[in-house]
Design brief:
Layout (H helix, E strand, L loop, with lengths): L1 H21 L9 H27 L1 H4 L1 H27 L4 H27 L7 H34 L5 H24 L3 H27 L5 H28 L7 H8 L4 H16 L10 H8 L3 H10 L5 H19 L5 H7 L5 H11 L4 H8 L1
Helix pairs in contact: 1-2, 1-8, 2-4, 4-5, 4-6, 5-6, 6-7, 7-8
Length: 386
C-alpha cells in the first residue's frame, strides 16, 4: 500500500512538472515574474519526484516511521518553500521578496543544524527529540509563508481593483480556491508525517490539492494581463507624484485664494485639481473614448496615463474628485453602455462579438456585468428591448 502511494506520488509529480513546463508555449503574454515562479514550482515538483523515487528504492518510510519522517521533513520544507516563493513572487509588489527568501533560507539552515546535532548525539538518522525541533521549524516556516502570501494577495487585489478594469474572477479563483487547499494540506503535513497511516489519507488529498493548484496556476498564466510593468513602474510614478501634487496645490491655492477657509479646509482644498487641469483631463478622456480606446481589454491606469501623457496620480484624483468613482467603475460603465448601444444597433451580433468589441475580456464577464446591472442576461435584455 505504501509503495503504491509513493509510486502514485512519483508519477503525478513528473506529469505535473512536464505539464507545467509544456504550457510555457501557450501563454498569451510573457511575464518575467510569472515565468520565474513557473520554474520554481517545476523544480519543487522534480525534487518531490526524486524524493519519492528514493523512498521507493531505499524504503526509508517502510523501515521506520521516524526515519521516514526525518527524510520527509528535509525534502518537504524546501519544496514547500519553493511553492511559497513562487506564489509570493507573483503576488508581491515590492522588495520584501528578498526578505522572505532570506528568512526561509535561515529556517532551513536551522533545521539542518538541528538534524546535525541530533545525528551527532544518536549516531544515526533516528535523531530522537530533535525530530520535533525540525517539525516545529517546519511548521513555523509554513505559517510564516502563508501569512506573508495572504498579506501580499490582499495588497495586489486592491492594486488591481484600483488600476485595472479586467475581469477579476480568474485572480479570485486562483487566489482563494487552489491556495486554500494547498495551505490546508501544508499545515497538516507536519503532523501527518509522524504517522504512516495518516499519510494514506493526507497523501491523496495532497495530490489532489497539488494538481488543482497546478491547473489553476496554468490558467492564471494564460489569463495573466502583463501588469508586471504596472507594478514595477508604480514606484517610479510615485517618485514624481510629490512634485506634481506640489504644482497642483500651488495652482489650486491661487484659484481659491479669494475663499479664505479654516486650516482644515485649506488642507482639503490643496488636494483639489485645478479647474484648467480638470478640463484638460476630461477632454483627453472624451477623445480616448471617441477613438474607441475602451475596446482594449488590457488597458489599465498606467497604460492610459502614459497614452494620454497625464500623471497617474492626477487621473486617480480626477476620477475620485470629479466623477466620484474609480477608474475601474468608470471604464466598466463606458464598456457597459457601449455594449447596450451595440446590441440595439446590431441585433444580429453575438455576445462573443459584443464582448470583444466593447473591451470585455470574455463573454462570461459580459454576462456577469449584465446580471449585476440589469438583473438579467444580455439575451433577456435584448428581448426586453425588442
Amino acid at each position: 500500500m505504501l509503495y503504491l502511494l509513493q509510486f502514485a506520488c512519483l508519477i503525478l509529480m513528473l506529469i505535473s512538472a512536464f505539464f507545467l513546463a509544456v504550457t510555457r508555449i501557450h501563454v498569451r503574454w510573457t511575464n518575467r515574474r510569472y515565468e520565474y515562479s513557473r520554474w520554481m514550482i517545476s523544480s519543487a515538483l522534480l525534487l518531490m519526484a526524486a524524493h519519492f523515487f528514493l523512498q521507493m528504492h531505499y524504503g526509508f518510510r517502510a523501515t521506520s516511521t521516524y526515519l521516514g519522517a526525518v527524510i520527509n521533513i528535509m525534502v518537504y520544507q524546501p519544496c514547500f518553500t519553493l511553492f511559497a516563493m513562487a506564489i509570493y513572487n507573483v503576488e508581491a509588489t515590492h522588495t520584501k521578496r528578498r526578505k522572505m527568501n532570506l528568512i526561509c533560507a535561515a529556517v532551513y539552515a536551522a533545521m539542518l543544524a538541528a538534524f546535525a546535532v541530533g545525528y551527532s548525539f544518536s549516531g544515526s538518522l533516528n535523531i530522537g527529540a530533535w525530530l520535533y525541533v525540525m517539525l516545529a521549524l517546519f511548521l513555523g516556516n509554513i505559517v510564516y509563508c502563508i501569512y506573508m502570501i495572504i498579506i501580499e494577495m490582499n495588497k495586489r487585489k486592491k492594486l488591481l481593483e484600483t488600476m485595472t478594469a479586467t475581469d477579476m474572477r480568474p485572480f479570485t479563483r486562483y487566489a482563494y480556491a487552489c491556495l486554500t487547499l494547498l495551505f490546508i494540506t501544508a499545515t497538516i503535513i507536519p503532523f501527518a508525517i509522524l504517522s504512516t497511516k495518516s499519510l494514506y489519507i493526507i497523501g491523496p488529498f495532497g495530490l489532489v490539492a497539488t494538481l488543482f493548484f497546478i491547473v489553476n496556476f496554468v490558467a492564471l498564466g494564460f489569463n495573466y494581463v502583463p501588469t508586471e510593468e504596472l507594478l514595477d513602474k508604480e514606484r517610479g510614478n510615485n517618485l514624481t507624484a510629490d512634485a506634481v501634487n506640489a504644482e497642483s496645490e500651488e495652482e489650486s491655492v491661487k484659484c481659491d485664494v479669494q475663499q479664505s477657509a479654516p486650516e482644515t479646509g485649506s488642507e482639503q482644498t490643496s488636494k483639489q485639481l485645478p479647474t484648467s487641469r480638470i478640463a484638460f483631463i476630461r477632454s483627453a478622456l472624451d477623445h480616448w473614448c471617441a477613438d474607441l480606446g475602451y475596446k482594449d481589454c488590457t488597458v489599465n491606469m498606467l497604460t492610459l496615463s502614459n497614452l494620454l501623457e497625464i500623471n497617474k496620480t492626477e487621473l486617480s484624483q480626477y476620477f475620485s474628485q470629479c466623477q466620484n468613482t474609480t477608474f475601474r467603475i468608470w471604464l466598466g460603465e463606458i464598456r457597459f453602455n457601449a455594449a447596450k448601444k451595440m446590441m440595439m444597433e446590431n441585433p444580429d451580433f453575438s455576445n462573443d462579438i459584443i464582448s470583444s468589441e466593447c473591451g470585455f475580456s470574455s463573454r462570461s464577464y459580459l454576462y456577469r456585468v449584465f446580471k449585476e446591472k440589469e438583473g438579467c442576461t444580455p439575451i433577456a435584455w435584448r428581448d426586453k428591448q425588442a
